[in-house]
Design a protein that fits this description.
The chain is mainly β and 568 residues long. The chain has 2 domains: 8-359, 8 Propeller (Methanol Dehydrogenase, Chain A), CATH 2.140.10; 363-567, 2-Layer Sandwich (Heat Shock Protein 90), CATH 3.30.565.40. Helix content is 7%, strand content 39%. The chain is built from 4 helices and 39 strands. Strands 1, 30, 31, 32, 33, 34, 35 and 36 form an 8-stranded mixed sheet that branches. The longest helix is centred in the C-terminal third of the chain and has 16 residues, at 396-411. The radius of gyration is 27 Å and the shape is globular. The two termini are 21 Å apart. InterPro entries: DUF3298, PdaC/RsiV-like_sf, WG_beta_rep.
Length: 568
């Protein structure tokens, strides 16, 4: 399990460790360590001193930092204090940063919660809650089969009833834009209408309603932006209706990212694979269509990527050479003078002058003292492979053999990939120890551009820490004994007795396990699993069948090396 180490000096560093909120590569490169490539390629042209004043420790400004632990390969978010201790336990699917003493989290049931710095739930909703801003959060409730938006204060009390079809956050003037039917209004904290404007029908299909702007789409590939008065800001027409989706994104600071047109046959590619250009609210194009992964504004800067690097641009669309430029693909934000970089699935914090403050731990220490370090292989900007390297085994020769095989397993299938293959790859792993067994779980996701969905990867590797042997399922059983038939019988019985409403398998899909059947171990049994589409639809995920060792006692080789390795 990979862990976050939070040093004491990080009291000003962690800004937001989450992928929940959108608002707030060289060809053939192989580098050591998940974050080493970022550190080595940090570019600083004009060092900038960073002075940060810590807020006083009261309820509204108490310094807490979103952070996560990994539970069963999933991230669980909570909040740490400046000593690295969890003061709000990591039990949430997502967690925002605190704003004015409040944060928004998502619980394991999918509900949104507004919480205070003590972790107390202020407001709960099955729908989205906006970040707390200028004394209020936007909340939604269901009313007559539709959602209506209103505002709650820091006590969870409704200060403006949920009567709006759409509502934006209050600005620093304590004013907000709201929509009822076809009318946009500017209101104050009492809900008093200050001004109103009718919105023309062609703008009613909204993608975004923020800061007094409406980003809209129409049938036939038309998209654009109007302000709250209905005055046109931007207007585009794409040759394919597919292209309209997310074609314009409001970034803040009265600036927009506009998606470029794709060549014929690739119109259905989503925004991750398509270049953007920067436009202002005067309709002026500030950059060419060469920008990817465009972030929202933070401290007057936006991060973007090209084929090789992640870097910042300013409100004129010009690269900011005084700020860090990192090799790899991702996003960066700035808060309180600290740069948070999430590049190639790694997390890194820097000063504006490029000084590294903190990075994600990239090694795991096992109970035996053996360490597993993460290295990165990146053949092109769409492919990231994190693979394990073992250190601390008793025999260097055996250790080298194990590492060579693991590297081959992870890298060989990806070596020849180029960006022209139109495939994204995200491969990673977790490492653990059971008895004298090193267990490496390879996880990943392959996605071909424009496909309905990708294909997940999950492979288990069991390595003897003494001999370096990679064990297979057959090694668990007495040699020349038929272990396949009893396993087949047990699985077939489980399929036939499955609840048809919860478990669904293809008819006559299971005949027999394979010689190299996928499986994983527990202390009291094995679980055999199948890939999506093998015996069940994609939505079923990886169907699993747990079989206790007691059920297979007649065929298990309890004198074998595999059994002894994890029963120690």
């Amino acid at each position: 399990m990979k862990r976050i180490k939070l040093p004491l000096f990080l009291a000003i560093v962690i800004i937001l460790v989450t992928g929940c909120s959108k608002k707030n590569s060289n060809e053939g490169v192989e580098v050591s360590g998940k974050n080493d490539t970022n550190i080595e390629s940090t570019v600083t042209v004009t060092p900038t001193a960073t002075e940060v004043v810590l807020p006083e420790d009261d309820d509204k400004t108490k310094v807490l930092y979103p952070a996560y632990t990994v539970v069963n390969e999933d991230k669980r978010y909570g909040y740490m204090d400046d000593k690295g201790n969890f003061v709000i336990e990591p039990v949430y699917y997502s967690a925002s940063d605190f704003s004015e003493g409040y944060a928004v989290v998502t619980d394991t049931t999918g509900k949104s919660l507004l919480i205070d710095t003590a972790g107390k739930i202020i407001y709960k909703s099955p729908y989205t809650i906006s970040p707390f801003k200028n004394g209020a959060s936007v909340v939604s409730v269901e009313s007559e089969n539709s959602l209506k938006s209103g505002y709650v204060d820091g006590t969870g009390k409704l200060i403006i009833d949920p009567i709006y079809d759409r509502a934006d956050s209050f600005n620093s003037n304590n004013q907000a834009y709201v929509l009822i039917d076809d009318t946009i209004s500017l209101i104050d904290k009492n809900g008093t209408v200050l001004e109103s404007h009718k919105l023309a029908p062609e703008y009613s299909n909204m993608d975004q309603f923020v800061d007094g702007y409406v980003v809209y789409t129409n049938e036939g590939g038309k998209t654009g932006v109007v302000n709250y008065k209905g005055e046109s800001v931007l207007s585009f027409e794409y040759t394919s209706a597919y292209s309209v989706y997310s074609a314009i994104q409001y970034l803040g600071n009265d600036l927009f990212a506009v998606m470029g047109e794709m060549e014929e046959g690739k119109e259905h590619f989503n925004s991750y694979y398509r270049p953007f250009a920067l436009y202002n609210n005067k309709g002026e194009q500030l950059t060419e269509f060469t920008l990817y992964d465009v972030s929202t504004f933070s401290e007057n800067y936006v991060s973007v990527t090209d084929d090789t690097n992640t870097y910042f641009i300013d409100t004129n669309g010009k690269e900011v050479t005084s700020l860090p430029k990192l090799e790899g693909r991702g996003t960066m934000t700035i808060s309180n003078g600290i740069v948070k970089a999430e590049v190639d699935n790694s997390l890194l914090y820097l000063k504006k002058d490029g000084t590294i403050l903190w990075k994600m731990a990239d090694e795991t220490t096992l109970p035996s003292g053996v360490t597993v370090k993460s290295f990165k292989f990146k053949p092109n900007k769409y492919v990231v492979v994190n693979y394990p390297v073992i250190e601390g085994m008793s025999s260097e020769e055996i250790q080298k053999s194990v590492n060579d095989r693991l590297k081959d397993i992870f890298i060989s299938p990806r070596t020849g990939l180029t960006k022209d293959d139109e495939l994204t790859v995200e491969d990673d792993y977790t490492a653990s120890q059971l008895g004298n067994l090193l267990i490496i779980i390879q996880t990943g996701y392959d996605y071909y551009f424009g496909a309905a969905h990708g294909m997940p990867i999950k492979q288990y590797y069991f390595v003897d820490l003494t001999t370096g042997v990679f064990y297979s399922l057959a090694d668990l059983f007495i040699k020349d004994t038929d272990y396949i038939t009893p396993i087949n019988t047990i699985i077939q019985t489980k399929i036939e007795s499955a609840d048809s409403e919860e478990d669904f398998y293809f008819e006559d899909s299971f005949d027999s396990i394979a010689d190299n059947q996928n499986f994983f171990l527990e202390q009291d049994g094995i679980t055999l699993y199948f890939y999506p589409y093998e015996i069940a639809p994609y939505a079923a995920g990886f169907p699993e069948f747990k079989i206790s060792f007691d059920e297979l006692t007649n065929v298990i080789d309890k004198e074998g090396d595999f059994w002894k390795a994890f029963q120690k």
